[in-house]
Amino acid sequence: MAVVETQDLKVRAQAKFVRSSARKARLITDLIRGRSVPEARTILAFSSRAVANDVEKVLSSAVANAESRPDLHWQGDDLYVASAFVDEGRTLKRFRPRARGRASAIHKRTCHITVELARTPEALAAEAAAAAARPSRRQKAQVETEVVTPEEQTPETEATEGTEE
């Protein structure tokens, strides 16, 4: 038995070195993972967290990537967030002067936000149905080669030709 693997196409966008901690950004990406793009945009628009703006920019970039690829021709509303994750970036280390000539460290954390989009199963099913409804190249070639010869003309067409005079 042969196993047929279908290639799952995904489009991704990534923002690196976003000035927010990874933990704060993960709280937002957990909300949108698995949701459709319009639903994820609504969630991000009404979120009160500041990092939601950065996640929304990455989501918009991923949608733009999907729409602008000439080999895909995807629509933004037919996509869902297949995966969204946040990795830690570099930590900027700064120091603040303290009492008695000492200094304390300040850690300014960064993160990398990644959003991957894929087509919804409904959009895939609609595309498959449309592809099945379209005639194949072989069927188109057969239709084009079928030409009516004079012997195949019906008596009705011959009668109408004689009445024109």
Explain how this protein is built.
The chain is an alpha+beta fold and 165 residues long. It has a domain at 11-120: Ribosomal Protein L22, Chain A, CATH 3.90.470.10. Helix content is 41%, strand content 27%. It has 6 helices and 3 strands; from the N terminus they run βαααββααα. Strands 1-3-2 form a 3-stranded antiparallel β-sheet. Strand 2 and strand 3 form a beta hairpin. Helix 2 (37-45) runs antiparallel to helix 3. It is rod-shaped, with a radius of gyration of 29 Å.
Give the gist of this structure.
The chain is an alpha+beta fold. Helices cover 41% and strands 27% of the residues. It has a domain at 11-120: Ribosomal protein L22/L17 (Ribosomal Protein L22, Chain A, Alpha-Beta Complex).
